Amino acid sequence: MTTGDKRQTRRRRVLLGARISYRGLGTSTECRVRDLSDTGACLVITSPVGIPDTFDLVFANGAVKPCKVEWRKADKIGVSFT
Questions:
Q1: How far apart are the first and last CA of the chain?
Q2: 27 with 52: CB under 8 angstroms?
Q3: Fewer C-beta neighbours within 10 Å, C or N terminus of the chain?
């Protein structure tokens, strides 16, 4: 049975606070990390409007992951870590 899931690694469910940091602009948007793997994440956001195709994801513990948007929905975006 095919699920259509194209992920390279299995994601684990989490609920972490984070920020989408716009490279070079000095601004950010709050988000929640809904699930996470070594290669990407699903982020819950207020709106995907205005979120650039690449950005830095800054976790509450200070860790930073450069991201590329893979898909967008009403209140979620899927990202791969670059």
A1: 30
A2: no
A3: N
Is 44:2 a contact under the CB 8 Å cutoff?
no
Q: What is the pTM of this model?
A: 0.83
Longest dimension (CA), the chain: 46
Q: Which amino acid is at 65?
A: K
Using left for φ > 0, alpha for ψ between -120 and 50, and beta otherwise, residue 53 falls in alpha
> Can you give the pLDDT at residue 50?
86
Q: What is the pLDDT of residue 1?
A: 38
CA dihedral 59, 61, 66, 71 (to 10 degrees): -20
Instruction: Quote the number of domains for the chain.
Output: 1
Residue 25 maps to a domain: yes
Structure-block tokens of residue 24: 């070079």
Which domain CATH number covers 40?
2.40.10.220
